[in-house]
């Protein structure tokens, strides 16, 4: 069955509505968390912050997100993702709105605000991973997950130029946060009315779609668990088998792969605009557009890679593990090589932009590895395992983003050291995932 079957004329599948809402949630949340990477260029000039101070501000978000990812995934698996995601979105929109006020009090208040923002956003991906396992059959999960992950960069690709425009406008850098906070509150209201945790909860869902979702689950769950799921119980997960989860190397493949990947991933998210501004001397009003181009390429190729993975697995009958390993290697090697080339070979801003944009296109293939793997090996606990991986990944994310400012400070803005370390982490992540990953259900 296609993601949007042609024979459902005039009917919009409810899982499509659900995934579209999830996509917008990720777009808005990442716009809210990363718009500061543009705003901080203006803020640092106004308050005379050095790189170390900027690093602390940018990295403080991850302290908050560290605290809610596991519990967010566990609560979503147990009670459904609708309520948990709704509370998270309200929290992150509120603290986005308050950011300018806290920034003008002192830097400590701003850091506290960023931590609270992280607490709200920490539940986002674990909730969505849990929702995808409830709403999408295995044949569609790579595409659904890719659509959600690339929406990170859709949000940032839209946010970066808008942030540059607002920051240089008469309204000042404060307006960056006000505009995106309003958008966050609007999404929360829409989610309240149209977001549902389970297919059976959605009024108006067709019998064909519901049967398709539940019937496809039979290839994933045991008979007893499937019958319990079909009964519509909200307490699908009764007791979390922590010991069983931690005993499988396939789980550690996801945790380690995601952790090493996130060192470079979040440095790119937070420091790439500053890299363009300082290394290639791009005009301050153009850095948002430079950054957005790489993000748009990531989005396009990320969607393509999701379809390629589903086609390879379900049509060409290539082993799931082979596909997951292959796309992980393409993504990790692609971004690593491009960062090194941009630093050591690029002489102009155009050359740097071209190399990094190509690198992001290849990097997008990595989406369909660690992000989808929890659904491959433990669909019942996908939200929990995703939350566990993202929680562990916030540790290198925090230290990576914070240490970048310190390294630039003591090395006189030597970006080659930053990107070399990132490349090394990408390679380690690729090795761990390749050696430990699995492609079959191991926890039911």
Automatic annotation (TrEMBL):
<feature type="transmembrane region" description="Helical">
    <location>
        <begin position="109"/>
        <end position="132"/>
    </location>
</feature>
<dbReference type="InterPro" id="IPR011701">
    <property type="entry name" value="MFS"/>
</dbReference>
<feature type="transmembrane region" description="Helical">
    <location>
        <begin position="144"/>
        <end position="163"/>
    </location>
</feature>
<feature type="transmembrane region" description="Helical">
    <location>
        <begin position="417"/>
        <end position="443"/>
    </location>
</feature>
<dbReference type="InterPro" id="IPR020846">
    <property type="entry name" value="MFS_dom"/>
</dbReference>
<feature type="transmembrane region" description="Helical">
    <location>
        <begin position="56"/>
        <end position="76"/>
    </location>
</feature>
<keyword id="KW-0813">Transport</keyword>
<dbReference type="InterPro" id="IPR036259">
    <property type="entry name" value="MFS_trans_sf"/>
</dbReference>
<feature type="transmembrane region" description="Helical">
    <location>
        <begin position="175"/>
        <end position="194"/>
    </location>
</feature>
<feature type="transmembrane region" description="Helical">
    <location>
        <begin position="287"/>
        <end position="309"/>
    </location>
</feature>
<dbReference type="Pfam" id="PF07690">
    <property type="entry name" value="MFS_1"/>
</dbReference>
<dbReference type="GO" id="GO:0015293">
    <property type="term" value="F:symporter activity"/>
</dbReference>
<keyword id="KW-0812">Transmembrane</keyword>
<feature type="transmembrane region" description="Helical">
    <location>
        <begin position="330"/>
        <end position="346"/>
    </location>
</feature>
<feature type="transmembrane region" description="Helical">
    <location>
        <begin position="16"/>
        <end position="44"/>
    </location>
</feature>
<feature type="transmembrane region" description="Helical">
    <location>
        <begin position="251"/>
        <end position="275"/>
    </location>
</feature>
<feature type="transmembrane region" description="Helical">
    <location>
        <begin position="381"/>
        <end position="405"/>
    </location>
</feature>
<keyword id="KW-1133">Transmembrane helix</keyword>
<feature type="domain" description="Major facilitator superfamily (MFS) profile">
    <location>
        <begin position="18"/>
        <end position="444"/>
    </location>
</feature>
<feature type="transmembrane region" description="Helical">
    <location>
        <begin position="83"/>
        <end position="103"/>
    </location>
</feature>
<dbReference type="InterPro" id="IPR050382">
    <property type="entry name" value="MFS_Na/Anion_cotransporter"/>
</dbReference>
<protein>
    <submittedName>
        <fullName>Major facilitator superfamily domain-containing protein</fullName>
    </submittedName>
</protein>
<dbReference type="GO" id="GO:0016020">
    <property type="term" value="C:membrane"/>
</dbReference>
<keyword id="KW-0769">Symport</keyword>
<feature type="transmembrane region" description="Helical">
    <location>
        <begin position="352"/>
        <end position="369"/>
    </location>
</feature>
<keyword id="KW-0472">Membrane</keyword>
């Amino acid at each position: 069955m296609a993601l949007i079957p042609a024979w459902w004329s005039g009917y919009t599948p409810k899982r499509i509505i659900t995934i579209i809402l999830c996509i917008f949630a990720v777009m808005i949340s990442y716009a809210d968390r990363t718009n500061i990477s543009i705003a901080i260029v203006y803020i640092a000039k106004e308050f005379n912050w050095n790189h170390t101070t900027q690093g602390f501000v940018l990295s403080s978000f991850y302290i908050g997100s560290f605290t809610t990812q596991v519990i967010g995934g566990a609560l979503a698996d147990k009670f459904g993702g609708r309520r948990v995601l709704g509370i998270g979105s309200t929290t992150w929109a509120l603290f986005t709105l308050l950011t300018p006020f806290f920034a003008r009090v002192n830097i400590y208040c701003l850091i506290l605000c960023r931590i609270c923002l992280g607490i709200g956003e920490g539940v986002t991906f674990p909730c969505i991973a849990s929702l995808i396992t409830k709403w999408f059959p295995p044949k569609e999960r790579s595409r659904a997950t890719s659509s959600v992950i690339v929406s990170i960069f859709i949000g940032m690709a839209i946010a970066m130029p808008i942030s540059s425009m607002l920051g240089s406008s008469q309204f000042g850098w404060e307006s960056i946060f006000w505009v995106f906070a309003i958008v966050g509150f609007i999404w929360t209201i829409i989610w309240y009315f149209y977001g549902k945790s389970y297919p059976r909860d959605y009024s108006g869902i067709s019998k064909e779609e519901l049967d398709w979702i539940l019937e496809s689950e039979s290839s994933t769950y045991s008979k007893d668990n499937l019958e319990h799921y079909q009964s519509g119980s909200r307490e699908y997960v009764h007791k979390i088998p922590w010991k069983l989860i931690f005993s499988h190397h396939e789980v550690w493949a996801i945790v380690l792969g995601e952790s090493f990947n996130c060192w470079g991933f979040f440095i790119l998210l937070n420091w790439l605009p500053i890299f363009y501004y300082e290394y290639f001397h791009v005009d301050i009003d153009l850095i948002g557009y430079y950054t957005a181009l790489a993000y748009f390429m990531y989005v396009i190729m990320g969607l393509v890679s999701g379809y390629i993975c589903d086609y390879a697995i379900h049509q060409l009958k290539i082993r799931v593990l082979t596909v997951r390993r292959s796309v992980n290697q393409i993504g990790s090697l692609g971004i690593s090589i491009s960062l090194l080339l941009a630093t050591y070979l690029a002489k102009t801003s155009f050359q740097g932009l071209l190399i990094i944009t190509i690198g992001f296109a290849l990097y997008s293939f990595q989406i369909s590895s660690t992000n989808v793997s929890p659904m491959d090996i433990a669909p019942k606990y996908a939200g929990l395992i995703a939350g566990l991986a993202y929680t562990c990944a916030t540790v290198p994310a925090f230290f990576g983003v914070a240490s970048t400012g310190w390294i630039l400070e003591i090395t006189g803005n030597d970006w080659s050291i930053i990107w070399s370390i990132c490349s090394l982490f990408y390679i380690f992540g690729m090795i761990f995932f390749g050696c430990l990953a699995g492609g079959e259900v191991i926890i039911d």
